[in-house]
Design goal:
single chain, about 80 residues, mainly alpha, two-stranded antiparallel ribbon, flat
Length: about 80
């Protein structure tokens, strides 16, 4: 996260702290150490143009798992 933002401060627009069960169960302050890339409702093509490196990360880490699922909606909106 730090490297991605240092290389392109615009990346901070779509990188957010991730607080899940691990943080809730292991830290009384729910301190986070993980981050998520969240493009929200943005159009995929715009994201490819504005954040190509982040889209590459999402395609490598998220897309394969979503395409392997049986639910068509998850494959379409990976």
């Amino acid at each position: 996260m730090e490297r991605l933002i240092a290389e392109s401060p615009k990346n901070a627009e779509v990188i957010f702290p991730f607080i899940g069960g691990e943080e809730v169960n292991s830290s009384p302050t729910h301190a986070h150490h993980r981050y998520v890339i969240n493009f929200g409702e943005r159009i995929e093509e715009n994201c490819r143009q504005e954040w190509p490196e982040l889209m590459g990360i999402v395609e490598r880490k998220v897309k394969p798992g979503r395409l392997a699922q049986n639910r068509e909606i998850r494959a379409r909106y990976w």
